[in-house]
Amino acid sequence: MTTSAPLKVALLGCGVVGSQVARLLLTQAADLQARIGRPLELVGIAVRDAAKPREGIDPALFTADAEALVRRGDLDLVIELMGGIEPARGLLLAAIGAGASVVTANKALLASDGGTLYAAAEAAGVDLYYEAAVAGAIPIIRPLRESLVGDEVLAVKGIVNGTTNFILDKMHTAGEGFADVLAEAQALGYAEADPTADVEGFDAAAKAALLASLAFHSRVKLDDVDREGITGVSLDDIAAAEQMGCVIKLLADCTLSEDGRIAVGVHPTMVPLSHPLASIPGAYNAVFIESRNAGRLMFMGPGAGGQPTSSAVLGDVVTAARNRVRGASGPGESAYSARGILPADEVRSRYYVALEVSDEPGVLAKVATCFASHGVSLQAVRQDGGAGESRARLGVMTHVAPHGDVCATIAELQQLAEVGAGVSMMRVEDR
Ligand code: NAP
Ligand code: HSE
To answer: Which residue among 91, 210, 275, 426 is least enclosed by CB atoms within 10 Å?
Structure first.
């Protein structure tokens, strides 16, 4: 093989992201060649429907036989943008087994079985890159995996799902209902193939698992993440948050606890308007990293959509291709610290608790006593008119308390005759 021979690339998937990646591989070929030192040759694209017309891409490149494509034996790079667990997992392992480096945006797969992919890549001496798997266009994997690898990361926190941020933002700013905005997010290409992954928080939870794994040099999996989506967030909750000077955001929070365990969760959270995360609009994402030496870093940018995400994929493609040209390989998995996961009930946060009560003497004192008996300290209480003259709505802001103690308080509040059944709680961001 001469030094100018093309590096052969196969693409698995040509949807929202894959079609943009194919377009860039073809239209930016000369620049990519100059940056890599050898040309890239796109040799095939696997899709479900190979007969479907795809604008600007040679129909001869398409195949419905992904297995044959990854096993052809001469591939340098395989880019997986199909999504889902299988057949993506088997195809990536086959590609690695055949000696190709792999680039993927598949957070669902990485968060459920990334260890197997890392081990296979290590054994084969090839690269596994996945910048586009978290926060779309924002460089966040490489900063954690490489730039901050000499530091001690203490917390990674932020908005990592574009679809839900788009929905919550529209609910706040336009008062639009959940279902209409979700349809808009799907049409714009932000949502996953099954949007349940977005609105129920699975997508953000997978990303939180990847961020926590890299930040804390441990293997954190999707099942380790305490997860709650946004389907329970109503326009009433949005109004209550606004009354408290907050907006609701779906926040991923990965924090080292005092005893060194990992607290990792995804929850709808009230964010004070003065907090930088409160102003993150539309499908944008933003991630804070707090580390021992660098201090606080913030990364912000488009978190979803074909074109922004293709930038992150192409960055990985160039990096893996450069490694290939030099006969080198990038970093493998770093999971040496093997920290435990802090149980969800022990994770501490501030909370906003909303409840409807009988508007009569002594009720507020009973409610306050209930919080106190579980060791939950109150920061502020707000009272408004309730459903009738004899009812009042209470909004209680707590100080930082363990989740389990707040849940126990709510269970007891619901037993009080003066309190209605519909007691709700939401975390409040305080850093
Ligand atoms: P998409 O629009 O649904 O595209 C999926 C592509 O994969 C389609 O071309 C589809 O073929 C092909 N495909 C699916 N299953 C297949 C199978 N079994 N065999 C062969 N081909 C198959 O998905 P996407 O939004 O581009 O997302 C792709 C990946 O990127 C996912 O892992 C997603 O989580 C990740 N991601 C997406 C975004 C975003 O904003 N959309 C951002 C970051 C990361 P057909 O075209 O024939 O149906
Ligand atoms: N569905 C994802 C989102 C795509 O809305 O953030 C980017 O990972």
So the answer is: 275
